[in-house]
Write a structure and sequence with these properties.
Blueprint: H1 2-13, H2 16-39, H3 52-55, H4 57-81, H5 84-90, H6 94-127, H7 130-133, H8 142-169, H9 172-190, H10 196-203, H11 205-214, H12 225-249
Helix pairs in contact: 1-6, 2-4, 2-6, 4-6, 4-8, 4-9, 6-8, 8-9, 8-12, 9-10, 11-12
Length: about 250
């Protein structure tokens, strides 16, 4: 497994798409944090407060999309360029390759998200007025401390979910399309339908995940937002296991 992890790291660190998508992740996240800080001038009641949640909105809305795309590309890029046969010849246990990819990128995504959360806090504070900046005391603010563990955990869940989709479809454009449509539109549209709409609103995986991330459950299914995160985690693990099963059974 150690050698497999090393080989996957070499592949990842020499892939240009990983570098520029990481740059986009930082640009979206820190760019919005800078905007939030700049707007917190303290000139009026509307701009006097700088809340932790406002500073990470870019990470929540756009940064996580980059993580989802990167998680998919960890698996589908090899199939796109036809390198999977060499990989499986070197490591005949295909599940080991899938787990190594998942573990490697999960660690990267969690660490990157945690560091970016802190950078968002301090970027916004640096650009805000003294009055607005004093409202957000990073290591003492309850919301900030929650975001510090909540966002990295959400990143880990998204990596697992998207890895499962990628293993099932093994096609970058298809897997990205499925995840983005599911994320942006599918559950929202289905929740508007009679009879099944309420069920989808309660038990849609992304509905529960983002209720967990934002600490707000729009349609209460009878459990806490933490349970919503756990529920999404079950979806993610099941999809990942199914993806490994399919990987083992089909032709390379």
């Amino acid at each position: 497994m150690i050698n497999t992890l090393r080989s996957e790291w070499i592949k990842l660190s020499t892939t240009k798409s990983f570098i520029w998508t990481t740059a986009l992740f930082l640009l979206f996240s820190l760019g919005y944090a800078a905007l939030a800080g700049t707007m917190a001038t303290g000139d009026s009641l509307a701009t006097v407060f700088l809340f932790a949640g406002n500073t990470v909105t870019g990470l929540y809305l756009l940064g996580f999309l980059m993580i989802m795309i990167q998680a998919i590309m960890m698996y589908t890029t090899e199939f796109r360029f036809g390198f999977q046969q060499q990989t499986f010849l070197a490591t005949p246990k295909r599940w080991q390759v899938a787990v190594a990819k998942w573990l490697l990128y999960l660690v990267i995504a969690v660490v990157l998200t945690f560091i970016t959360v802190l950078l968002c806090f301090y970027t916004a504070k640096a650009l805000a007025s003294d009055t607005a900046s004093s409202i957000l005391v990073v290591w003492e603010d309850e919301q900030a401390r929650r975001i510090m563990w909540q966002y990295p955990l959400a990143a880990a869940l998204l990596v697992t979910f998207c890895a499962g989709i990628a293993l099932l479809l093994k096609h970058t454009a298809g897997a990205v399309a499925v995840v983005l449509v599911w994320h942006f539109a599918l559950e929202n549209l289905l929740s508007l339908l009679p009879r099944i709409g309420e069920f989808v609103g309660k038990y849609g995986p992304f509905t529960n995940l983002y209720g967990f991330i934002t600490n707000y459950q729009s349609v209460d299914p009878g459990w806490s937002v933490e349970m919503g995160g756990l529920y999404f985690g079950v979806w993610a693990v099941v999809l990942f296991i199914l993806g490994i099963v399919v990987l083992e059974k089909r032709d390379a």
